[in-house]
Amino acid sequence: MGKEQGGRAQPIPLALYIHLPWCLSKCPYCDFNSYRIRDDGVPERAYVNALLADLEQDLPLVQGRSITSVFLGGGTPSLLSAEAIHRLLENLRSRLEFAAGLEITLEANPGTVNWEKLRDYRAAGVNRLSIGVQSFDAELLKRLGRAHGPKQARLAAEAAHRAGFDNFNLDMMVGLPGQEPGQALADITEAISLAPSHISYYQLTLEPNTRFYRDPPPLPDDEAAWSMQCDGRNLLIEKSYLHYEISAFARAGLHCRHNLNYWTFGDYLGIGAGAHGKLSDNESGIIRRRWKKRNPTHYMAVAGSPACIDGDQVLQEYELPLEFMLNAMRLNDGVAVGLFNARTGLPLQVMRPALDRAGHRGLLEITEEWMRPTPLGRQFLNELLEFFVFEQHASDPCHG
Question: Does one domain contain both 250 and 322?
């Protein structure tokens, strides 16, 4: 069963992701495209030039579309000066149409910011922060290989308030090496006391190509880690944080708009070393993913030329149900049923049997208007998603 005729009725929202790949050190659990800062510092002028050249090459792909959010991720974007961020954002504004009330998020490490720097980021146009705290326990931070201590984490949150950021996230982790339940609850209690608008709270996992994966530390067992995560979740909800996504909690109206675009299968342009993008063509119905050279030195040498593109993949129709559900089922409230067609161009019928099977297993709730994971489905998300792994078939690209 192919795509419905006439393309999509509504344009798909478009976000911009910018990757800044340097860090003070490489954390042993991190599988992101990040590199220890060079002895001579971040080559920020050369890198901003490369980002702008990269964008120029991609502009024809997004002509006529407005940007709904910008996310500067890494790596540690807060290693860049406010002057470099100002120059970057000013040049973006001159090349792209920014939607009204645009959310611009910058990731920050507590050890790389102070009040003055955050004030200048805000003056440059950044209006949301995501501060990577992970824990307020000095020993646990040491085991994680973090380049900051508890005091720096507290000061960073206080500086964010003082600099005028009424919207910022604290990134917290649970299930850390040797972590006890009391430590986990103390961490989330302290995070709440700093009054962020948003808290990301997720379990440490051992990802391939990391030092922890090659040499695993002693972690709490699955049952203990889940219990700690549930205790933290319950406390966040009790303190009026809305649990809207598997690992995301927010004050009312302050959900991360950029991440919501990912989770609702929106489009995003990716610039920077190793940055990934996903773009849909309304006329042809084609959805493609493309990504850039990973190594920063190589990236800067070829940015703006075809050699910068490290991969370009057209998503096949049989892949789209899983691609869509992989994102949408992260949201506790799920999504409108009509969003599947609006984002993929496919009729819902192509995955109706899979939806029914997931519903019979108690993992999915679906009505005429909405579909959402059940509490059991949220706990066993991988099992829920397995229903939407389709194989390519000669007569039906979404044959299960």
Answer: no
Has residue 230 been placed in a domain? yes
Residue 343, SS3?
helix
Which of 260, 277, 307 is where one domain is finished? 260
- Tell me which residue range forms the domain holding 80: 14-260
Please tell me whether residue 202 adopts helix, strand or coil conformation: strand
Condensed to tens digits (0 to 9), the pLDDT of residues 17-74 reads 999 999 999 999 999 999 999 888 999 999 999 999 999 999 999 999 999 999 999 9
Residues 376 and 236 in one domain: no
Determine contact, residues 51/258, Cβ cutoff 8 Å: no
Count Cβ atoms within 10 A of the Cβ of residue 50 and give its class: 0-12 exposed, 13-18 middle, 19 or more buried.
Answer: buried
Alpha helical stretches, state H, 113-252: 115-124, 138-144, 150-162, 181-193, 211-214, 222-238
Q: What is the C-alpha to C-alpha distance for residues 155 and 122, in angstroms, rounded to an integer?
A: 17
Q: What is the total count of domains within the chain? A: 2
pTM (2 decimals)?
A: 0.94
Query: Are 106 and 32 in a shared domain?
Result: yes
DSSP-assigned letter for residue 107: E
On whether both 253 and 350 belong to a single domain, the answer is no
Dihedral (C-alpha) 345, 350, 353, 355: value to the nearest 10 degrees?
-10
Give 104-113 pLDDT, tens digit per residue: 999 999 999 9
CA dist 77 and 107 (Å) reads 6
Please report, for the domain that includes residue 82, its CATH number. 3.20.20.70
